Amino acid sequence: MSKFTKKKSNELPPISTASLPDIVFMLLFFFMVVTVMRETDLKVEQKFPKADQVEKLRKDRSIFIFAGKPSRQYKERYGKEGKIQIRDKYTNISNLAFALEGERAKLLPELQGSIVVALKIDEDTNTGLVSDIKEQLRELNMVKIIYITTLGNQLDDL
Amino acid sequence: MARRSAPEVNAGSMADIAFLLLIFFLVTTTMVKDKGIARLLPPKQENLIDPPKIKQRNLFIVLVNKDDQLLVEDNLMDLKDLRQAAIEFLDNGGAPSGSPEYCNYCRGKKDPSSSDNPDKAVISVQNDRLTSYKMYIAVQNELVAAYNFLRDRESLRLYGWKFTEVKKAFAEKNFRGNKADRVKTEEGMKEIKLLYPLKLSEALPRKAGN
Question: S-S: B155 plus which of A82, B29, B79, B163, CB 3.0-4.6 Å?
Fold first, then answer.
C-alpha cells in the first residue's frame, strides 16, 4: 500500500510559466497589427470643437487638411495667424488647390470619385480661413467634407 | 574529437523581450477613430442664374457675429435655445389644409407667418470672418440636431426605428436583418429624407468686423 502513497507531497505544484511568452506574443502581434504610426508631423495646434451629431470618417477615401495656429515650437517663426497644413508642409490658400490635386492622385483610382475631405481644424481658428478652404474645395469639385470634432457638446461648457 | 551536443539556449528571457516590445506598441497605438459632422458643399456654379426666390417666411436666418453672438430671425438668442427654435420653424407647417403645400405630418403651431412645410423651409447661416470655428461648429451641430430630432420622430412613427441609429448601423456595416429588410429600410430612409430634407444654406462670410 505504501508504494502508492510514497510520492505524494503536500505542496502545490508550481504554476508553469512556459506559456507566458506565447500569451505575450499574441498580445504583441495584436498591437503590432493595429498600430498605425503617425504619418504626419503636426505643425499646427489641434484642439477640436465638440459636437454630438457626428458620423464616422472612412479613412480609405479621405484627404486631411489641418489648420490652426502654429504649434509652440513654430510660433516664433510663423507668428500666431491661422495656418493650413497638408501632409508635412504649411500651405497657402493660393497653392492649396495644387496640393490637394496631388493628394487626390495618391488615392486608389476607384475611390477618387467618392473623395471625402476631412477638415481637422483647431477650435480657435477664424471661420474666414475655413471658408477660404471651402471655396477652394468647391473649385476642385471636392464637395464632400467632414468637420472633425471630438465627442461632447459645446453647450456643456457655456 | 567527440562531438558535443550544443547547449540548450535559455529561453527564460524571451518573455521579457516580448513584454518590452508589447509595451512599446501599447504606448504608440492610437485607436481613436475620427468622427465629425459630414456636409456636402454646393457645387461650383458655371453660369450664374438668378437664384430661386424664397419667401421671407420660409427662411430662417441665423447670424453669428465676430463676438460669437447669435441673431436668430432678428432676435438675440442663446445657443441652447437654437435647437428648439429650429425645430419649431421646420415643423411649423403653416400652409393651410387643402393647399398642395399642406404638411400633414407636421406637429408645429401652423403659424401662417412661419414656414409653409419642411420641404420649403430653408435655414440660412451667415458668419462673420472673425467668428470662431468653435462657435461655427456649435451652431452647425445644433441645426443638424434639429433635423435629426424630426427625422427620428417621423421614422419612429412610420417604421418603428430611429433614423439616426439605422444610419449609424449602415455606416458601420452592422445592420441586422436579411436583404429584404435592408432594401425596405433603405427605402424608408429615403422617404424620411424627403419628409425633412436637409436645407442648410451658408452665405459667404461678410467682411471682418462688420
Answer: B163
Q: What pLDDT score does B145 carry?
A: 92
Confidence check: pLDDT of A81 > 60: yes
CB–CB contact B18 A25 (8 Å)? yes
Task: Determine contact: B127 vs chain A, CB below 8 A.
Answer: yes
Indicate if ipTM > 0.90: no
Fold of domain A50-156? Nucleotidyltransferase; domain 5 (3.30.420)
CB-nearest partner of B79 from A126, A142, A158: A158
| B1 Cβ under 8 Å from any chain A Cβ | no
> What global pTM score does this model have?
0.80
Residue ranges covered by each domain of chain A: 50-156
Residue for grid cell 433603405: B186
Show Cβ contacts of residue B64 under 8 Å, excluding neighbours closer than 6 positions: B70, B71, B125, B126, B127, B128, B131, B135, B136, B139
Mean pLDDT of chain B: 85
